[in-house]
């Protein structure tokens, strides 16, 4: 097959037959923020079982070297095996790193649950497999830092759950690639301690949250909660004590069993354990895996009918949005939006960072898209931009009408804080979270960015019941 001409080659859309290292592209498989995945086979054996070839969209992207190093340290049946890595030279002479892993023929976790309506026992076994995968990661001193349903595939052949996408992961002594207070990850799955850290130190350029294994376990708990209820967690309002330290009132979301009476009580208890506000109460990945496996053994398919019930499609499809006021604080990421809302007029006395704060040099000189988009320059336009969709996702051409309780621009068309954007009669914060995180924040996706409504400063009643599926 003749090689495509140089101007036709785009790392995001390589045609079949393109050679990358010692691999030949078979087909396009998917795209993320920083890389694109292809099915590929060895150049020397085009009838071999396909592998997953992940190619960097940006030249010399150091994230790939870090992912390769992390995957080379971890081996587990529930983590795709690293097969190869290298650099592909574009005909235009730019160098794009790539890595090759086992191809996982599977379905993303939430989609799989919607299709199969698994029993509580089945969910317990899947969560145990993921906990074992995290145990293997943590045993090497590594972290995943982006555990969520979209990064879990349920393999068709045997129904096993595999933890994928280690692009946000970290291994000991790895260089920091992400500017800002928090490491990369999905806001809706961030732990309470990470969100409080951001709230406490967001103005300190030296502060950088050091994620821990318990952050991964909390994210697994959010994944499980979302899996069996179709909803994201809601935090209570953050409060500041007399010493200037921020605290969370706790989770205001109902227990999974209250939203889903079909749930096994043991599964309910273990999800709540993973979601503990105190990290030490979550235990270790090994302890959690043992508890999940024991709970699965003590149950039986006959005694644990589908934990999703007859309305599974509605429950684990697009997540249920919280009421407008609660939606702004529904996920951990809402705290970051809340910072921008409150810091415009409320002075924060930022104490010196604790021992978990450290300043690390950006050895690669690269920025990670992650969740650092809150500092985007404000837009003075009064209407939302009309733009085409990106990455194959549908884009909405206009923002919805302002929500009840949303901050409105003043008579001059300005919002209370420079980082708030006046659009369509309301004040919004523009972030770079993905679509799933945007939905958790009651936001709207436009041109690949999430526009989140800003709440008014008046405290709303919190005594109304939590929505049920």
From TrEMBL:
- A Pfam match is Pkinase
Record field: compositional bias (Low complexity): 377-397
Which Gene3D superfamilies does this UniProt record tie to the protein?
A: Phosphorylase Kinase, domain 1 (3.30.200.20), Transferase(Phosphotransferase) domain 1 (1.10.510.10)
The organism's taxonomy opens as: Bacteria, Pseudomonadati, Myxococcota, Myxococcia, Myxococcales
Q: Which organism is it from?
A: Stigmatella ashevillensis
Q: What is this protein called?
A: Serine/threonine-protein kinase
Disordered as annotated region, ranges: 361-415
Residue stretches making up the Protein kinase domain: 23-297
Q: Which SUPFAM superfamilies match?
A: Protein kinase-like (PK-like)
């Amino acid at each position: 097959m003749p090689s495509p001409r140089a101007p036709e080659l785009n790392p995001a859309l390589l045609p079949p037959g393109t050679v990358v290292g010692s691999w030949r592209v078979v087909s396009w498989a998917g795209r993320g923020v920083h890389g694109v995945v292809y099915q590929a086979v060895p150049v020397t054996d085009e009838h071999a079982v396909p592998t997953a070839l992940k190619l960097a969209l940006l030249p010399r992207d150091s994230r790939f070297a870090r992912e390769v190093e992390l995957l080379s340290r971890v081996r587990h049946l529930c983590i795709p095996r690293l097969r190869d890595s290298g650099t592909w030279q574009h005909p235009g002479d730019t160098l794009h790193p790539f890595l090759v892993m086992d191809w996982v023929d599977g379905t993303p976790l939430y989609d799989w649950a919607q299709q199969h309506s698994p029993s509580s026992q089945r969910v317990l076994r899947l969560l145990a497999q993921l906990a074992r995968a995290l145990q293997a990661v943590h045993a090497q001193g590594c972290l995943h830092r982006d555990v969520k349903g979209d990064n879990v595939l349920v393999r068709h052949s045997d129904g096993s759950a595999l933890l994928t996408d280690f692009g946000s992961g970290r291994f000991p002594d790895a260089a920091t690639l992400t500017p800002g207070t928090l490491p990369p990850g999905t806001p809706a799955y961030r732990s309470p301690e990470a969100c409080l850290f951001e709230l406490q130190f967001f103005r300190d350029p030296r502060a950088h949250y050091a994620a821990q294994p318990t952050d991964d376990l909390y994210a697994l708990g959010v994944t499980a909660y979302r899996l069996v209820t179709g909803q994201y967690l809601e935090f209570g309002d953050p409060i500041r004590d007399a010493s200037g330290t921020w605290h969370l009132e706790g989770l205001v979301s109902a227990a999974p069993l209250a939203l889903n009476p079909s749930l096994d009580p043991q599964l309910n208890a273990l999800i709540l354990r993973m979601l503990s506000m105190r990290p030490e109460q979550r235990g270790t990945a090994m302890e959690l895996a043992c508890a999940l496996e024991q709970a699965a053994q003590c149950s039986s398919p006959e005694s644990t009918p589908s934990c999703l019930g007859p309305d599974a499609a509605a429950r684990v499809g697009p997540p249920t949005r919280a009421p407008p006021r609660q939606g702004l604080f529904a996920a951990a990421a809402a705290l970051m939006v809340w910072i921008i809302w409150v810091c415009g007029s409320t002075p924060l006395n930022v104490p010196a960072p604790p021992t978990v704060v450290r300043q690390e040099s950006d050895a690669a000189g690269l920025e990670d898209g992650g969740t650092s988009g809150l500092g985007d320059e404000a837009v003075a336009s009064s209407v939302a931009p009309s733009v085409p969709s990106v990455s194959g996702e549908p884009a909405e051409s206009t923002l919805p009408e302002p929500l009840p309780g949303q901050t409105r621009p003043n008579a001059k068309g300005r919002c209370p804080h420079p980082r708030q954007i006046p659009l369509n009669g309301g004040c919004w914060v523009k972030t770079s979270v993905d679509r799933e995180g945007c939905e958790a924040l009651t936001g709207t996706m436009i041109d690949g960015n999430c526009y989140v409504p800003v709440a008014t400063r008046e405290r709303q009643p919190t005594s109304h019941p939590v929505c049920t599926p």
